[in-house]
Design brief:
single chain; 263 residues; alpha/beta; Rossmann fold; seven-stranded mixed beta sheet; two-stranded antiparallel ribbon; 9 strands; 36% helix; binds S-adenosylmethionine
Length: 263
């Protein structure tokens, strides 16, 4: 049975063995460790990951690929006690429940069309995840790693990712490493959830709201962008200049805005 890659599921399958091996080496797993892979597709990363001896859970949404995987790997599915195939939507998945343990790595060549919401979803399990290694569109990795002053690359994804994780861009992957080739360059990134968060935030929902509102109107001054959440005097009292813009603010400054009134 030949599978026709589906655009709606972001299916660009890895075919370059050197790149596949580099990704698996970066994941750096082995016996006694649990790995959850998002979107195994046709198994490009799955098989070499399994060969490392780790316990592996894979989460795939495409029913046809799941069926194909079962047909092609009957021995794997019946005889291995360390391989588990979950037919599920990663955007709704409870990764702790899937992993079945309190310490695991989360990895995958992510479907690019849902990568940002998926990354936000993974932060819910930051306490159980020791590391995440993802393939993403190059620009998404650049956004995750950007700092205040980096212009429009710096945004909500940068602030929230760096609040929860240490961001380590690893290496780039050209379009020719996939079939079909995507129109964009890709990058591998390692995210290591912080054991101790880098800044103190009293109310994470408020922090998220402030960051979202500030970048939702990123060309406006904070005075205007945060109008519904803080007035000018409060922004000043939090130690921030109301005429500044979101892309000039560091993580610490966003935390100061969010903590104002909740101290
Ligand atoms: N890991 C394979 C590889 O590297 O060749 C496939 C990667 S492909 C970029 C993305 C995979 O994620 C596809 O298998 C796709 O069906 C799957 N996928 C897309 N959306 C998903 C979702 N919401 N939940 C789980 N899997 C999803």
């Amino acid at each position: 049975m030949k599978h026709k890659p589906r655009k709606r599921f972001g299916q660009n399958f890895l075919v370059d063995q050197t790149i596949i091996q580099r990704i698996v080496d970066s994941i750096n797993t082995g016996p006694g460790q649990t790995v959850v892979e998002i979107g195994p597709g046709q198994g490009a990363l799955t098989m070499p990951l399994l060969a490392t001896g780790c316990d592996l859970h894979v989460v795939e949404i495409d029913r046809d690929l799941v069926t194909q995987f079962r047909l092609n790997n009957p021995v794997l599915l019946h005889d291995e006690h360390r391989f588990f195939l979950h037919e599920a939507d990663a955007l709704r998945a409870d990764f702790r429940e899937i992993a079945g343990v309190d310490n695991f790595k989360l990895v995958g060549n992510l479907p690019y069309n849902i990568s940002t919401p998926l990354i936000f979803h993974t932060f819910n399990w930051r306490k159980q995840i020791s590391e995440m290694i993802f393939m993403l569109q190059k620009e998404v990795v650049e956004r995750m790693a950007a700092s205040a002053g980096d212009g429009k690359t710096y945004g909500r994804l940068s602030v929230m990712t760096q609040y929860y994780c240490k961001v380590e861009p690893l290496f780039m992957v050209p379009p020719g490493a996939f079939f079909p080739s995507p129109k964009v360059e890709s990058s591998i990134v390692r995210l290591i959830p912080h054991q101790t968060l880098p800044v103190k935030v009293n109310d994470e929902d408020r922090f998220d709201k402030i960051v979202k509102a500030a970048f939702g109107m990123r060309r406006k001054t904070l005075r205007n962008a945060l109008k519904l959440l803080l007035d000018s005097d409060e922004i000043v009292a939090a130690g921030i200049e109301p005429s500044s813009r979101a892309e000039q603010l560091t993580l610490e400054e966003f935390a100061a805005l969010a903590n104002y009134q909740t101290q």
